[in-house]
Amino acid sequence: MDQSVLVIWVFLRLTGLLLNLSQVAGNAEGDALYAQKTNLGDPNSVLQSWDPTLVNPCTWFHVTCNNENNVTRVDLGNANLTGQLVPQLGQLQKLQYLYLICSFCYPTIPMGWEL
């Protein structure tokens, strides 16, 4: 393979990789759910599918989305979680249902949430 062709091929591959990474980083709903995951104790690993490298959190277990891929439901009942709710969950603008049974959770609702 000619060296200039190889350089162009490597450049195009790196550009594609960077575009994919920016799409992952640009998903505010996935980022919000991942922030919640990192603030919860999860002894039964029910949140193990919550992988921030996946572009769409609609593929995660316990997450339901509408046709526009907006998170509408998070169902974590009986998951034996511990921790607190994070303010980033306020970024889930289409969220209609949050079910969470949590042992030793802090009882406060984050500021900025409308009930």
From TrEMBL:
It holds the Pfam family LRRNT_2. Residues 1-30 form the signal peptide. The keyword Repeat applies. Keywords: Leucine-rich repeat, Repeat, Signal. InterPro entries: LRR_dom_sf, LRR_N_plant-typ. Residues 27-66 form the Leucine-rich repeat-containing N-terminal plant-type domain. The keyword Hydrolase does not apply. This is Somatic embryogenesis receptor kinase 2-like isoform X4. The lineage of its organism: Eukaryota, Viridiplantae, Streptophyta, Embryophyta, Tracheophyta.
